[in-house]
């Protein structure tokens, strides 16, 4: 007859139960995995599968009962760390989407939005285009695999213990977010500069010819200039998107 004592049960729960919460939190917040089109059952199943594969490779810690106060603290810590890892990549995606929204605003396409059936909400046109392009780049460079590798490395950088995580690490995460948003601004700057020159030219034109209908002429001009700049900038957009993705992954690895 096989007997299982409280110490062996706590050891099993410590080895598999606590890593599951970190992996599940990442699956709920990371790009692609957190998309509404991915069923919750698929996220939970993926988290369980990764836990079974990863748990035997993790450093051993002393058994802690999940029903005790230190166990509850450890569960909360794993959820926070997993969400922070997913949030680091979400910031990279948000920075690129913000760049697309700013470009669309300058082009006069801020009112142009399409209904996203997956999110059941209106999505700005240019921002949605940039977001889809970044998702394709993310999968093309195996970003999802690099994300899982960073997750495994996080168990060594942030070991499972009740002592908590140093505040300096969270401060570094916040400072890295500002760098990612700066990269998104760099993506939008060429189009913003071209639109500024177009608006200045339209302003001079309306001053020299007051009878000219600004709304009838200005909107097609700004739209044409914006689309032309996007077309010319597409070959240079892909390296910028790759740098943003690698920047987000670098935050995870640090």
Main-sheet strand order equals 1-2
- The structural domain count equals 1
Tell me the structural class: mainly alpha
First-last Cα distance: 48 Å
Report the strand count. Answer: 2
| Biggest sheet features | 2 strands, antiparallel
SS element count, helices: 7
* Assembly state (oligomeric): single chain
What does this structure look like?
- The protein has one domain (6-253).
- The chain starts with 5 loop residues before the first helix and ends with a helix.
- The radius of gyration is 24 Å and the shape is elongated.
- α1 packs parallel to α3 (69-107), α5 packs across α7 and α6 packs antiparallel against α7.
- The chain has seven helices and two strands; from the N terminus they run αααββαααα.
- It has helices at residues 6-29, 40-54, 69-107, 125-140, 143-157, 167-208, 214-253, and strands spanning 113-116, 121-124.
- The longest helix has 42 residues, at 167-208.
- The chain has 254 residues and is mostly helical.
- It has a two-stranded antiparallel ribbon.
